[in-house]
Amino acid sequence: MSDRKTRLAIILITSLFFLWGFALNLNPILIPHLKKACQLSDVQSALIDSASYIAYFLMALPAGLFMKRYGYKSGITLGLILFAFGTFLFYPAAEMRLFGFFLVALFIIASGLTLLETAANPYITVLGDTETATQRLNFAQSFNGLAAFLAPLMGGTFILSGKTLSDKDQHAMSASQLNNYLAKEAASVEIPFLIIGIVVLLVALLIWRTSLPDIIEEADTTEQANGSIFAEKNLVLGVVAQFFYVGAQVCISSFFIRFSDRVAGVDEKTAALYLSGSLLAFMIGRFFGTYLMRFVAPPRLLAIYSILNVILLFVAILTHGMFPIFALIGVEFFMSIMFPTIFALSIRGLGSKTKIGSSLVIMAIVGGAVFPVIMGRISDLTTIQTAYIVPALCFLIVFYFALKNSSATNVKLVTAH
Hints:
By secondary structure, this protein is mainly α. The chain has 20 helices and no strands.
């Protein structure tokens, strides 16, 4: 490929990191929004996360098999088409105000995102000199962080109305007034998601028309993997830790806006700004944590960050006013290095089992489908503030995993979510 075509290819593949980061980080906006529009309980609204992360779990292996047969470019194109199709389904879902329809749309979107994530990391490493592959990956992942910052900022501006009716307000309205209010709330997602879908289709068209290099998969070595993959105790523990970590990560941000309202009386639009700031803290924390690993062993830093997050979550649970919100922003900062660090520690020393081990760690993302539902149920039974005990307990599992890997020193972070 010429330098010009290579640069265009890098730009297009980097855009995928931005697109899936943007889509996933709209969920914390959709949770309080659809809770209002569809009159949901907390546990029902948590199914928004479940629809997304179940798709990652179910589609991870099919995505890999599809690309192995038809190529990464075809996989990316299909992923973008599914992504766009899911966003277009938001229009009829909003018109009918059917929560189940929204969940189907989110599942389809996440299925497309799974294809994009499966392809993007290996693709960005082969576009250009092998010596600069890590820098390109880090550069592309920074756009994922940028998207995480922008999604709640833009979602809060164009989707959230800033108007939440109390039970008393709703009972004071006539049936037609209430229905008009709910229909207007639901309709606010239509235009934003149509625009997202059109942009995604344009990227799909550009990808389809752009010459991209084939990724030559490394041939399996003659060395056979001895024993079951589940005999690798550290890998199994790493899968468990990643399951709990992703669950905690999704819990923290998904209920952030509801938490801000209930605990500090912050309206949803202002809370969306705080959420955006917390995800900016996450992005900054990723760069700062990576720098700290030059001086602090990754398992030790993971252990320190885990305990700090447990402490901050108890501050969020036990205090009042703005302190709990600032505590959650601190949690986002300290979560930043956890996914790639757990991933790297889990697969170290696997040799010929590395590929299947990596797949298992990635599939542990399904934790994001499980723990928000548990947290939502606790919130319905008690309070949203009490429910934050769920991610606190999750970080204790991460802390244990870090302690079990305390002897590891040279760990290279090569992936992020």
